[in-house]
Amino acid sequence: MVKRKSRDFFSRSDDKQKRKHEATSVAPSLKKFLLTLRQQLGRLMEGKVLRQGDSPLLVSSYLSVYKGLAGSDGESIGNCPFSQRLFMILWLKGVVFNVTTVDLKRKPADLQNLAPGTHPPFITFNGEVKTDVNKIEEFLEDVLCPPKFIKLGARHPESNTAGMDIFAKFSAFIKNSKPDANEALERGLLKTLQKLDEYLRSPLPDEIDHNSTEDVKVSKRKFLDGDEMTLADCNLLPKLHIVKVVAKKHRGFDIPKEMTAIWKYLNVAYTREEFTNTCPSDKEIEIAYGDVAKRLVK
């Protein structure tokens, strides 16, 4: 039996209509989540539906919760930074979407046929399947565009590449099982984190008043490209949060407190519904990495 329940996640001060995200539970033994943005994707804030040609948009995404791991309630958002990246984009643009949980052992045939052999998240439009997250991001930014939707692209190209090596260094660090290699891998991760911290500290060009006698040495901005989230933040923040949670759990590694710009960046993100309401719990992240993180074996 399918159980449906509605939850109000947020209200927008600039829109009197309350926006709802429906969570649909299909089975208690769920291992992954399917996000479906059926005809509601592209719904404008005044209630219209955005169409391109004759076909509404359909976006599907599985949020991974690895099977057989105790502690998952089968309903919470699972760990998948790529899916969260898309969720954040849609949330920032004000799109209304439904969350449907699916037991993959009994996955409906229409979903199996929708994009066979592909790894979610994916998007289909007019029969074409897009599986590359970067291409999906470009597609959403192109279709959900001004004046009805805000533009999320970064103004400064450097913001798009800030922190881009962190997740790869983290993965190498956490998957390593050789104690002799641990120190070097940790240094590699620290180096990339330091580089991000320096970028967040450095004032952007538009923070510097060349007509002023005051020398701006430290940036006051909240996010990578300014005081508002951009596509760059949607990409980096989910990964950076995973690094913080998993490295602490499995390696006893903390992002150094001296990296104050990174901590400011994370703490500001934790106050934003676009991040917190699309982010899995720390417990779910730890569960997801239970079989990924390797123990150091002497």
Sequence-ordered SSE layout with sheet pairings:
Blueprint: E1 3-12, E2 15-25, E3 32-36, E4 58-64, H1 81-92, E5 98-102, H2 109-114, E6 122-125, E7 128-130, H3 133-143, H4 157-161, H5 166-175, H6 179-201, H7 231-251, H8 260-269, H9 273-276, H10 282-288
Parallel strand pairs: 2-5
Antiparallel strand pairs: 1-2, 3-4, 3-5, 4-6, 6-7
User: How would you write the strand order of the largest sheet?
Assistant: 1-2-5-3-4-6-7
Q: Regions with pLDDT < 50 over 5+ consecutive residues?
A: 1-71
CATH architecture of the largest domain: 3-Layer(aba) Sandwich
Number of strands: 7
Strand residue percentage: 15-25%
Element-level helix/strand string: EEEEHEHEEHHHHHHHH
Largest sheet: 7 strands, mixed
**Shape call:** flat
The N- to C-terminal Cα distance equals: 50 Å
The CATH superfamily of the largest domain bears the name: Glutaredoxin
State the helical fraction.
25-40%
Descriptive notes:
The chain has 298 residues and is α+β, with helices and mostly antiparallel strands. It has 2 domains: 3-143, Glutaredoxin (3-Layer(aba) Sandwich), CATH 3.40.30.10; 157-288, Glutathione S-transferase Yfyf (Class Pi), Chain A, domain 2 (Up-down Bundle). The chain is 37% helix and 15% strand. It is built from 10 helices and 7 strands. A 7-stranded mixed β-sheet has the order 1-2-5-3-4-6-7. Strand 1 (3-12) and strand 2 (15-25) form a beta hairpin. Helix 1 (81-92) runs parallel beside helix 3 and helix 6 (179-201) packs across helix 8. It is flat and about 60 Å long. The relative contact order is 0.14.
